[in-house]
Specification:
Low-confidence stretches: 1-24
Number of helices: 15
Largest sheet: 10 strands, mixed
Strand content: 5-15%
Mean pLDDT: 92
CATH topology of the domain at 31-285 and 321-339 and 341-386 and 438-464: Alkaline Phosphatase, subunit A
Structural class: alpha/beta
Length: 550
């Protein structure tokens, strides 16, 4: 009798555990990792053999990588698209970034991802960069759906002293929720602060209540010029074999970011939350390459090779993003999703993963739900494929680009065309130091721990092949293209590096795409940008960049 009761009790407990596991997958924790100014050629899973990103690459290998993924060419528009599911042309965010002294931001009539998730009883947290406007307190993260905020409101700060410069104005920019807190975090590296805050949140969360944590790293964005890249000395020493100090600093900054991502994953595993957490990784725009070309703007030494263009531009180098999704329950682990996808897709996709009903989202939202395509679900009827994508329509800079099927049309240019070309980055190596140094991959203890964690979650992980979505640009002739004078047309599938302008021989397609651009232009909202306001200056606000209008 006792044995029978024991078996019954065990069976009940087993069923309860199954139900709890099922409930976790229906409402998973969501960890969103946003990396600033990361170039296409700055990770291992796109073919870079020197720069080491073992943690990022391993999670890409273990998840689903998006090979045909696009973002906006600069950060404020991209982040607005990510948070709202609306293209920037439909929120007025399509033109330029928000400067700290400018009284504008993401319009409040647009609900954003944390607000949608709060309706599903998620706790919501933002760590790091905001850059969606703060001129009024109504626009800061804690008034837009985030329960907590620890980070900076502007586009970038110094990596150590929490100071942000805009024009001739310098001011502190770091907040805990709504409280200025720069002094509390002074002398700590930004990457370390953000990683530490993410770990604290993960450790403090209840396993019974789902959470959404967006960790928006400053890396690998520059600090306040002319400092450019600031890196902890132990990481700088790891790459002594790179001769150029600026390039060494960039590679070291990226390595510290990669280690941080591995460390966060390991804490998810240690706290028993890895199985119930969905992780999304995304870049926000292409890498700036101004320092490489000797230009005094768009500063940076990231690489978009072999793609054309850089940050700010609508060439592939400015808008082709890096993204993957990981969850231990995905049936499609270790695969590549080749469908055309966009940063706006994350709001409907994550809302769906969280158990939300798509009917709760605006009917005219631009993003599409990629959940069923990414998770390996057999409900093929629910998979939506995108065949058209507007890259941008900016009638202030007179630049636009649209993708329809395999064709891409580009009109106009930005920054006087300074970054319209292909930029090659050559890292010079001291062979003697390389032979006597520890290879970056083996120097990453977090990578070894990450692999152990993954193996404990899924024994197949050790045998899963590496993901590689390398782009080759062979057998294409370079033909003249001046998009200021005439629209340029490319077949991106055959010519991903935009060498061969086929507009002269495909005028019918050009005309059709121009017509479509005009149709979409009629739906665009006028940019909400406003000029700088002297009243914003930190000198008026105890040295802080802080909201200054009602």
């Amino acid at each position: 009798m006792l044995c029978s009761k024991f078996k019954t009790s065990c069976l009940v407990m087993f069923i309860i555990c199954l139900l709890e596991s099922s409930a976790e997958i229906k409402r998973p924790n969501v960890l969103l990792i946003i990396v600033d100014d990361l170039g296409w050629n700055d990770v291992g899973f796109t073919g870079n053999k020197l720069i080491s990103t073992p943690n990022i690459d391993t999670l890409a290998k273990e998840g689903v990588t998006l090979s045909n993924y696009y973002v906006s060419p600069i950060c404020s528009p991209s982040r607005s698209a990510l948070l709202t599911g609306f293209h920037p042309i439909h929120t007025g965010m399509q033109h330029d970034v928000i400067a700290s002294d400018e009284p504008w931001g993401l319009p409040q009539q647009f609900k954003i991802l944390p607000q949608y998730l709060k309706s599903l009883n998620y706790s919501t947290h933002l760590i790091g960069k905001w850059h969606q406007g703060f001129y009024s307190k109504r626009h800061i993260p804690t008034k837009r759906g985030f329960d907590t905020f620890n980070g900076y409101l502007s586009g970038a700060t110094d990596y150590y002293d929490r100071i942000t410069r805009y024009g001739s104005q310098w001011g502190l920019d770091w907040y805990e929720n709504e409280t200025p807190s720069a002094s509390k975090y002074a002398f700590n590296h930004t990457t370390d602060i953000l990683t530490s805050q993410a770990i604290k949140l993960i450790q403090s969360r209840s396993k019974n209540n789902p959470w959404f944590i967006a960790i928006s790293y400053q890396a690998v964005h520059i600090a306040n010029s002319p400092k450019l890249y600031q890196v902890p000395i132990d990481y700088l020493n790891r790459f002594k074999f790179i001769k150029d100090l600026t390039m060494r600093s960039y590679v070291a900054l990226l390595a510290s970011l990669d280690d941080s991502i591995g460390t966060i994953f390991n804490h998810l595993h240690k706290t028993g939350q890895a199985n119930s957490t969905l992780i999304v990784f995304t870049s926000d725009n292409g890498a700036p390459t101004g320092t490489l070309t000797g230009k005094n703007c768009n500063l940076g030494v990231g690489s978009n090779q072999p793609l054309r263009g850089a940050k700010y531009t609508l060439w592939e180098g400015g808008i082709k993003g890096l993204s993957w999704i990981w969850a231990n329950w995905l049936k499609s682990k270790g695969t590549v999703y080749n469908g055309l996808s966009h940063i706006t897709d994350w709001t409907p996709t994550l809302f769906s993963f969280a158990g939300g009903n798509e009917s709760s989202l605006p009917a005219n939202i631009d993003g599409i739900n990629l959940r069923y395509a990414l998770e390996g679900n057999r409900k093929r009827s629910k998979i939506i494929m995108r065949n058209e994508l507007i890259h941008n329509i900016d009638d202030i800079w007179n630049v636009s680009a649209i993708r329809i099927d395999d064709y891409k049309l580009v009109t106009g240019t930005v920054l006087d065309g300074q970054f319209d070309d292909w930029v090659s980055r050559n890292i010079t190596i001291d062979e003697h130091l390389l032979k006597n140094s520890t290879p970056p991959l083996k120097a990453s203890s977090s990578w070894f721990t990450l692999n152990q964690s993954l193996y404990e979650l899924d024994k197949k992980s050790i045998d899963r092949e590496n993901v590689l979505i390398k782009i080759d640009c062979f057998n294409q002739n370079k033909t003249h293209c001046d998009p200021v004078k005439e629209p340029c047309l490319f077949n991106i599938k055959l010519d991903p590096c935009e060498f061969n302008n086929i507009a002269p021989t495909h005028q019918t397609i050009v005309n059709s795409m121009l017509t479509r651009l005009d149709e979409i232009r009629k739906t665009a909202m006028y940019p909400v940008n406003r000029p700088g306001d002297p009243l914003s200056a930190p000198i008026h606000h105890e040295g802080y960049w802080i909201w200054w209008l009602p």
